[in-house]
Amino acid sequence: MIVRTLDEITDTDADIKTENWRSKRIILAKEGVGFSVHETTLYAGTTSDFWYANHIEAVFITEGEGEIEDKGTGKVYPLAPGTLYLLNDHDKHQVRAKTDIKCVCVFNPPVTGREVHDEHGVYPLITE
């Protein structure tokens, strides 16, 4: 059994910070469970482009408001507490945070914690 708190992750190498967001990686590939779990905060007023070409991601919004645009269709969806979006087709997307958005993200395959978004918003597939 693994029991972990956000306080244990804060300001460690599992706490990734950028200009637009902060991601606390709670469960990573090293745990060997087939997925990773993160708590991510997208900062108010930011726009972030992502494309997880190598991962499937589910995102559950717990706090804040904004919107997500499916870059393939142009369709825009509101984001608010209780909303889940699933990037089940490696969807290119843009998230626009009106307020700070706090969410729980699940990745498959799991991330290692060393991934960095490239110029297209893609995480490389790192398996070790």
UniProtKB/TrEMBL annotation:
| Keyword terms | Lyase
Is Signal given among the entry's keywords? Answer: no
Uppermost EC category: lyase
Tree of life domain: Bacteria
Q: A GO biological process this protein is involved in?
A: ectoine biosynthetic process
Pathway in which this enzyme or protein is active: Amine and polyamine biosynthesis; ectoine biosynthesis; L-ectoine from L-aspartate 4-semialdehyde: step 3/3
What this protein catalyses is:
(2S)-4-acetamido-2-aminobutanoate = L-ectoine + H2O
Instruction: State whether keyword Lyase applies.
Output: yes
What EC number is given for this enzyme? 4.2.1.108
GO molecular function term, any single one: ectoine synthase activity
Q: What job does the chain carry out?
A: Catalyzes the circularization of gamma-N-acetyl-alpha,gamma-diaminobutyric acid (ADABA) to ectoine (1,4,5,6-tetrahydro-2-methyl-4-pyrimidine carboxylic acid), which is an excellent osmoprotectant.
Q: Which family does it belong to?
A: Belongs to the ectoine synthase family.
Query: What is this protein's record name?
Result: L-ectoine synthase
Q: Which organism is it from?
A: Amycolatopsis xylanica
